[in-house]
Structure formats: C-alpha cells, structure tokens
Design brief:
Blueprint: H1 3-32, H2 35-42, H3 46-53, H4 56-76, H5 85-102, H6 104-115, H7 125-147, H8 157-173, H9 175-181, H10 189-207
Length: about 210
C-alpha cells in the first residue's frame, strides 16, 4: 500500500470516528458516551480510536473543537462585509437561528461541556483564535453601522453576540418544558417563524440609532 493510500485511509477512518463520536456525545454527553458504541458506528475498532485520539476525553475535545469551528467558519462565509450593516446583522441573526435548528447536536455538545465547566475548551487555542476572529467581525459590523448612522455607538460586540446566541439557544434547549409551562407547542413551523421574527425585532431594536 502506498504512503498516499495509507494517509487517505487514515483520514477517512478518523473522519468516521469523529462523525460517530459526535452522535454519541450529543446523545449521551461525555460521561454517558461509550467508546464501544463509537467504534461500532464508525466501523472501526477501539484500538484505532485510542491510536488516533489518545482517550475518550481527547476525542470529545476534538469533536467539540470541530463543532465550534464549523459554526465559526460558516459565519465567516456569510460575506457580511458586502452588505449594509442592518441587513448584515439581520442575516447573522437568521443564520444563527437556522444553524441551531439544523445542528441540534451543537447545542447538546455545548451543554455537555458546560457541565464539565469548559475544561476541554480551556485547553483549545484553535477555539480561542476562531472566537476572537468572530468578535472582531462583529465589532467591524457594529462600527460600520455607526458610520452609516443606523446603529448607536458603544455597543459591546461580545455582549451582542451572547444575546444573539442566547435568545435562540434558550428557546430551543427549553422547548419541552416551555411547551408545558406556556401551554403552546414551541416547535410548530408557525411558532418557529414567530420566534425568529421576535428575535430579529429584539436585536434590531437593541442596536438601532433611533432607539436612543
């Protein structure tokens, strides 16, 4: 077998392991996930998992990093710089909401990491770099909005990002209890459309210059 073929096979195996691990960790968390189940899903053996990743903890860290990088990379590809500031921010809010809906495993992985007090993210330089890049992009968008006269000055980019994430994240992580407490199905197409409209209105009212 050629060296190129070996590398290609190794990359394919690692990818299968990562995909299988993402499903297992998203479903059961770090504590409940089983390496045997990951190996079976990936059509690999446990020896290969430990060979490529070292331990279940390190595999979880790799999956978590990949999950964060996926959303950060997707945000960078939105081409927000080419849009007027208001349109760009609305586009970002819509994207965040849609991403959470299409990637529920991202939310459950983040929940799991919070249970462990972010001990894996603390060791991740790649996440720190990607997050700084995103905050810088958000700050650039806000500064552009101020210059265009549509956003009020002094808005903290990190705080705004937290708010955009929170109004979607909370709704979806609490959809089951919320359905009981508020006596309405929070996940019908109409309810999701109504929620997105509310999110957009909330964020735009928060940043607009005419709200001063």
């Amino acid at each position: 077998m050629t060296e190129k073929r070996k590398t290609r096979d190794a990359d394919a195996t690692k990818l299968r392991i990562m995909q299988a691990a993402k499903k297992e960790f998203a479903k059961h968390g770090l504590g409940g996930a089983r390496v045997d189940e990951i190996a079976e899903r990936a059509k690999a053996n446990k020896r290969m998992i430990y060979h490529y990743f070292g331990s279940k903890e390190k595999l979880f860290k790799a999956v978590l990093e990949a999950a964060y990088l996926d959303i950060r990379n997707a945000e960078q590809k939105l081409d927000l710089e080419s849009m007027p500031a208001e349109q760009a921010l609305e586009h970002l809010v819509r994207f965040t909401w849609d991403y959470y809906l299409k990637h529920p495993e991202f939310i459950t992985l983040v929940n799991s990491e919070n249970l462990h007090r972010a001990r894996h993210l603390k060791k991740s330089e790649v996440i720190a770099v990607a997050s700084r890049k995103f905050v810088a992009m958000m700050q650039s968008l806000l500064d552009r909005g101020v210059k265009e006269g549509v956003f009020r000055p002094g808005i903290d980019a990190t705080q705004l990002n937290i708010t955009i994430a929170a109004i979607g994240y909370y709704y979806l992580t609490n959809r089951f209890t919320g359905t009981i407490v508020f006596e309405r199905d929070l996940m019908t197409p109409e309810a999701l459309k109504e929620r997105l409209a509310f999110n957009l209105d909330t964020i735009m009212r928060l940043v607009r210059a005419d709200t001063l």
